[in-house]
Request: fold
Amino acid sequence: MENELQKAENNSIIEYTENNVEIKNLIYTIRGKQVMLDSDLAMLFNTETRSINQAVKRNIERFPDEFGFQLSDKEFENLRSQFVILNLKLNNGKVIRKYNPYVFTEEGIIMLSSLLRSEIAIKVSLRIVETFVEMRKFLNNNGYIFQEISNIKGKLMEHDKKFDEIFNELQHEENIKQKIFFEGQIYDAYSLIIDIFKKAKNKITIIDNYIDDSILKMLSKKNKDVEVVILTSTKSNIQNIDIQKFNKEYPTLKVAKTNKFHDRFIVIDNKELYHCGASIKDLGNKCFGINKIEDSEIIENFINKIIA
Reply:
C-alpha cells in the first residue's frame, strides 16, 4: 500500500512538471543569470529545502558561482517585493526562513539532481533543462523585439523628462516675469531671487545700494564658476573679509562702490534684466514687486551703458 501511495505521489510531481509554463514561472533572473530557488526545487524534487542545502554544503566544491549562490539581503528583499506569493513559497507556508535562500543555474540544477540520486530529481531536472533551453530559444528568436521595446521605453522616459523640464521652466519663467510679494513673504521672496541667480551660466550683476552679508548666503546657491559683480553704494554694510571668505569657496565675487544708482537691478548673463522694488536685504519686510524687463532695446541700452 505504501508503495502505491509513493508511486501516486511521484506521478503527481512528474505530471506537474509536464507543464513547462509552470516551471517558467519558477525561473528568475538574478545577477544576469536564470536561476531557480532552492525551495522551488525542493518542491519539484519532492524533498525538503534543507536536504538540498545540506547536499550543496557537503559538496561545495562542485558548486562554483556559475552553478549557484546565496542571495544577498538586498536581492532577497527585491525578489520578495516583486512577487507577493513568493513570501509564502520562501517560508514554505510555515515559518520564516532563518537564512537567505540559495538559487541554482541550469548547470547547478543538473549537479544537484545527480547528488540527490532520486528518480524524481533526475526526471524533473530533465524537464527543467528543457524549459531553460526553450526559454533561451525564445529570447534568442525574439531578442530584437525586447531590444526595441527597451529602446522605446527609454525614449519615452527621455521625452517625459524633457517635457517635465520644459513645463517646470515655463511655470518658473511665468512666476519670474512679474511677481508681487506682500509683507511677511520673506521666504518666498528670497526663494525667487535665488531662482533668478541659478539661471546664470556665466555672470550675475547686482545693483543695490544697501547690500549686506545676507546676499552671500543667497549667492552660495549659484552655479559653479559663475562670476558675480555687485555695484553698491559706500553706505552698504558688506565687509572685505566677508568677500574674501566667500571667494575661497564660491569664486568669483567682485564688489564696486558707486552712488550712481537709485533703483535695484539684477542682470543675468548680460541678457536678462530684472527690476527689484526693494533692497535684497529687506525682501519681504514690506510689500514690493519684482519685474522682468522684456524690451530688448531697453536691455541692450542698459547693459551697454551700465554693465559693459
